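Below is a filled-in request sheet from our internal design queue. Each sheet records the structural input a requester submitted and the sequence that came back. We keep these sheets so that new team members can see what a complete request looks like end to end.

REQUESTER: design group, bay 2
PRIORITY: normal
MODE: inverse folding
CHAIN LENGTH: 432
BACKBONE (tokenized):
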């Protein structure tokens, strides 16, 4: 297992739990917290694996200041002073697993991590930041010890004390809580092993995609391709691969065209250089073939808007250095139903134990294709590899229902409100 993916995630909506799988679909009404859920997944990754203070205003999620993020019901309770989230990974087939939790408080106007805790069956480490003073509480077996630590970073500068330093806690200056004896080497090793699991090399953090991608342009000027949520960089990336890495371009082009054909969007994709040198402007062209006629290549700005909206997304997923986790908002925007369904099939082929897709969607066409592909064994995923999270509003509370698929592709454990709209509209159509 080269990459760590989040499998079980305890979100901050009323301490409810939600199961994440290689392919997780998030559905529900508008303004029910789905985007906040995606933002929290990224924030937890930043804290747990990058020792970074998450930016809750970072695109494509702008959740505002602490006052906007922390839930407020009104009444006597007033505003929340903290909120928290966490996740559980594994145990995998290799026996790898741990739980992680972080409590956020307010510093200035921003949410910052105040308490971090990582634990498994053999050890635990809790780090508290109270007014700039770090206190580590470390446990293994029945032994628990604590120590006040020095300054290893500043949340004001976007840094957190690296958790691996906490394995050093419990030196001779430590103050025993339950034991009078110093921690044994075996107890220290249990703590170090826990933190080594957490510190497995991660090639990149989650990639978050905006619901609306960048507008197409007739002509592009070469620039350094750098990832962004709207996919503005993708034409530059495609041109760079086309010019500099021919073998990689051939494989990527073939994969993009396979999706284009299955979605009915395009059959051919070409990069047209407008000059002999690498620094010259270029255009992105696509072609839709007929049964007998090849048809002309057309500039991407001259074809349906769905092509320019989906191309950045599928490029990001199909490029060879794709990240391990995708957070996708409404990827079906501007796609007709058959293309939405084809996107569901693509998700099933991309998702795996080492590549996780968490998708917010309003498309029953996309969901139904995934259910049928899994049922008919048309894709590598099994029912256990798919999770469906249904966000249901109840007054000021949001209930998150963790649903699953059975072997026949049915959605199991769904509340009565799930799918009611689709079933009622289908019934009306059948009666008509």
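RETURNED SEQUENCE:
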């Amino acid at each position: 297992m080269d990459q760590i993916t989040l499998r079980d995630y305890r979100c901050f909506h009323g301490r409810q739990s939600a199961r994440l799988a290689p392919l997780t679909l998030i559905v529900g009404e508008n303004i029910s917290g789905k985007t906040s859920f995606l933002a929290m997944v990224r924030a937890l990754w930043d804290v747990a694996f990058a020792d970074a203070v998450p930016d809750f205003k970072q695109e494509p999620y702008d959740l505002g200041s602490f006052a906007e993020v922390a839930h407020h019901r009104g009444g006597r309770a007033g505003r929340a002073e903290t909120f928290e989230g966490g996740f559980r990974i594994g145990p995998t087939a290799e026996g790898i697993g741990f739980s992680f939790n972080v409590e956020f408080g307010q510093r200035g106007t921003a949410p910052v991590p105040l308490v971090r805790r990582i634990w498994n069956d053999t050890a635990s480490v809790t780090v508290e930041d109270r007014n700039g003073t770090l206190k580590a509480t470390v446990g293994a077996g029945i032994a628990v010890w604590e120590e006040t630590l020095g300054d290893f970073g500043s949340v004001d500068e976007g840094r957190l004390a690296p958790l691996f330093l906490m394995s050093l806690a419990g030196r001779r200056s430590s103050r025993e809580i339950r034991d009078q004896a110093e921690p044994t080497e075996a107890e220290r090793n249990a703590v170090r092993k826990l933190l080594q699991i957490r510190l497995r090399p991660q090639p990149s953090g989650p990639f978050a995609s905006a619901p609306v991608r960048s507008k197409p342009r007739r002509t592009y000027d070469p620039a350094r391709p750098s990832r962004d949520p709207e996919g503005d960089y993708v034409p530059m990336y495609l041109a760079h691969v086309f010019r500099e890495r021919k073998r990689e371009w051939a494989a990527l082009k073939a994969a993009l065209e396979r999706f284009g054909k299955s979605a009915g969007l395009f059959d051919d994709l070409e990069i047209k250089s407008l000059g002999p040198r690498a620094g010259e402007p270029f255009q992105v062209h696509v072609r839709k073939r007929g049964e007998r006629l090849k048809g002309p290549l057309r500039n991407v700005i001259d074809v349906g808007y769905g092509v320019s909206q989906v191309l950045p997304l599928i490029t990001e997923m199909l490029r060879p250095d794709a990240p391990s986790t995708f957070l996708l908002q409404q990827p079906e925007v501007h796609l007709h139903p058959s293309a939405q369904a084809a996107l569901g099939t693509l998700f099933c082929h991309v998702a795996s134990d080492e590549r996780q897709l968490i998708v917010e969607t309003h498309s029953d066409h996309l969901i139904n294709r995934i259910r049928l592909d899994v049922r008919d064994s048309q894709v590598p995923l099994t029912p256990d590899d798919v999770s469906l999270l249904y966000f249901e509003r109840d007054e000021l509370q949001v209930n998150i229902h963790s649903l699953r698929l059975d072997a026949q592709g049915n959605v199991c454990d769904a509340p009565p409100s799930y799918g009611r709209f689709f079933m009622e509209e289908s019934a009306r159509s059948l009666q008509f």
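SHEET NOTES:
- The longest helix spans residues 246-263.
- The longest strand covers residues 98-107.
FILED BY: M.R.
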